[in-house]
């Protein structure tokens, strides 16, 4: 809830309402890929997504108990930039596919019949 309120306040006062903040990109990509995987496997998405949350909770509890936060020293700005670059490439490729697929269908529709 606090993240949502802070995001709304940021977008109202920053002057850039379309900025993607925080982990929105990676989470959106994960959810869309996970939804497609659940559809392909005929698994209810809500149930599987709840299990993902429980699995993440288990990992976070184990990592917190082991004081694994010490490993964050190994994460540099370069690592963060590489991760953001991968997310940007995924967004660009998905949008290019969605823009290009109607054109490809229109051009090659006569060849298939």
From TrEMBL:
Name of one Pfam family that matches: HCO3_cotransp
Domain Bicarbonate transporter-like transmembrane: 2-96
Membrane-spanning residues: 48-71, 83-108
Main location: membrane
GO BP annotations listed: monoatomic anion transport; monoatomic ion homeostasis
Membrane topology per record: Multi-pass membrane protein
Keyword line: Membrane, Transmembrane, Transmembrane helix
Gene Ontology MF, one: solute:inorganic anion antiporter activity
Protein's recorded name: Bicarbonate transporter-like transmembrane domain-containing protein
Provenance organism: Spongospora subterranea
GO cellular component: plasma membrane
Entry's localization field: Membrane
């Amino acid at each position: 809830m606090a993240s949502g309120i802070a995001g709304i306040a940021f977008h109202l006062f920053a002057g850039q309402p379309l900025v993607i903040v925080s982990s929105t990109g990676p989470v959106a990509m994960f959810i869309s890929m996970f939804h497609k995987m659940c559809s392909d496997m005929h698994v209810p998405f809500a149930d599987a997504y709840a299990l993902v949350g429980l699995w993440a909770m288990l990992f976070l509890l184990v990592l917190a108990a082991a004081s694994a936060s010490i490993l964050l020293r190994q994460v540099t700005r370069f690592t963060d930039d590489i991760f953001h670059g991968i997310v940007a490439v995924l967004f660009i490729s998905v949008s290019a596919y969605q823009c290009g697929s109607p054109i490809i269908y229109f051009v090659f529709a006569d060849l298939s019949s």
